[in-house]
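Lab manual, section 2.4: Encoding a predicted structure.

Procedure: take the sequence of the chain (427 residues), apply the prediction step described in section 2.3, and record the output as structure tokens. A sample record is shown.
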Amino acid sequence: MGIPADDVVLIQQGSGSNDPTVVTVNCPDKSGLGCDLCRIILEFGLHITRADFQTDGKWCYIVFWVVQCSNSLRLDWDSLKDRLLSVSPPCLIPLYYDHKLNGSTAAPSVYLLKFCCVGRKGLLHGNYEDDDITEVLTELEFTIQKLKVMTTPDEKVVDLFFITDGRELLHTKERRDNTCGYLCDVFKEYCINCELQLAGPECENQRTFSSLPLAVAEELFSCELSEKESCTQALRKATPPPKKAIVTVDNLLSPAHTLLQIQCFDQKGLFYDILRTSKDLNIQVAYVRFSSNINGYRNMDLFIRQTDGKKIVDPKLLADFCSRLKEEMLHPLRVIITNRGPDTELLVANPVELCGRGRPRVFYDVTLALKKLGICIFSAEIARHSTRDRQWEVYRFLLDENCDVPLASVQARNQIVDRIRRTLMGW
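Recorded output:
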């Protein structure tokens, strides 16, 4: 027995522009399913305003109430449904079942997009009237892994984007041709040429490790080395920190589960960060009530257990889990500006899931914030960095000095960090 595939994921759009869309997932359970679903929802630029999550270890039933973080991006609801289905275990196992379509953690292939256009201000979020190339690539469900920019003597610009495909269809000629055709149609007279091909073997593995200077790495990841409140202050130089996240443990209410009652400041990707942390620490979440925003704060009830199905009674395990949750709720992303030789470099870091996946939409949000500040990017790349017991995804942006913002000014740098943090966290 089972339910039809079309009923595994149901999407009911709100009747009004301000009404949330309800996404329901009803399927067999698997380890980390909630995290995988939240990651896809975040990747599509959606904010979870409320959620109900229930599982008995065999079957999972989740309801998300979601709204768009920004109305500027066109959202393909059918593609969202397909992506959610791709990570949901099938209700009936067919004779032929392609496990690659169900949450494979293999690194996706990297493709090189060569985009030649007339010179313009802002190489990612340009000054076109309606669209920019980063926005278009995001709408097409591509993730930018690395970027290089070259300017020709006749002031033409060649952008080299190393991208991966959320749909995993770039191996088909149709997907490649449709992408180039769509870019040419969007940018019209600005576009001179567009080519898309598989990147060379030197770029196939985008998870290269970063060689950050020791002092820069210490500043970027110093929060991990201390639990003092001053650490949070350092990470929020321009933005006053919210009150501490509160996690209360109750092992008496339920005979089979440990209850965590959480109160914290609301931010984009909050539910994803909580489920990601649970997944990485091998904690099973049996039931979650994720309430609506009240005066900027969220209240959550998490009923959790160990992988053996028992409640968590080990004080050290509980303390470590609560400490990691608080860290993720207070500062899931790190943002600093430093000098790289004579250049100004912006660094943004976020934790990587144990399966190797980074946080969605960081590249898009950072370049959007820089566009609003009138700051151009000379080059950008994504690398990995390992600290004491975890791995980070580090975005490195070399900023163009030829802008109206005095990048050497401490006050200007604090304002840039503040704007980027607010954009990333949805404040």
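Check your result against the sample. The chain has a mean pLDDT of 84.
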